Give the backbone structure.
Amino acid sequence: MKIVLIVNRKPYKINVEPKRRLLDILRDDLNFIGTKEGCGKGECGACTVLLNGRRVNSCLVPAFQLEGSTVITVEGLRNWKVFKPIERAFIENGAVQCGFCFPGFVISTVSFLKEKSSPVTLDKIKTAFGGNICRCTGYTKILAAIQELADQKDIIDQIQEDWKNEFNARK
Ligand code: FES
Ligand code: FES
């Protein structure tokens, strides 16, 4: 089947098997290799992307659901002003080791903080990030990085602004 898909602000016309996974389209067909494959069955969050403004596990999304969709991967998030402060918070808290899980955590962080209802507690963060697995860092540092970001009003404001620039500009 032929579909049109916008990835990181650029439209792509592709010919795919209806059941081909979004993860394979991103990595193998379009070369957005920042999105990682861990479990391949919706349990680790390494493949997390924003699909039409919602975070999803791209290993679970088949091509036949994608016509006209907008996808943001970690490469696309690099255009957002808030990307650097998020990256810095993870690094300064020692929350990244091999980095394999990081793309999924960054996408989830943006999605979570966009919807944040204050105050953000550690329990809320733990629940929201239950679908993101890290095999080497340990969660204390990751949760600390996210908590630090959640506590900064300028970060939340910047996410709102980046989100508006990314999605509302298309309407
Ligand atoms: S690879 Fe998709 S959730 Fe693990
Ligand atoms: S830093 Fe290695 S999997 Fe998370």
Summary: The pocket of FE2/S2 (inorganic) cluster (ligand 2) is lined by residues 96-101, 134-137 (CB under 6 Å). DSSP finds seven helices and five strands in the chain.
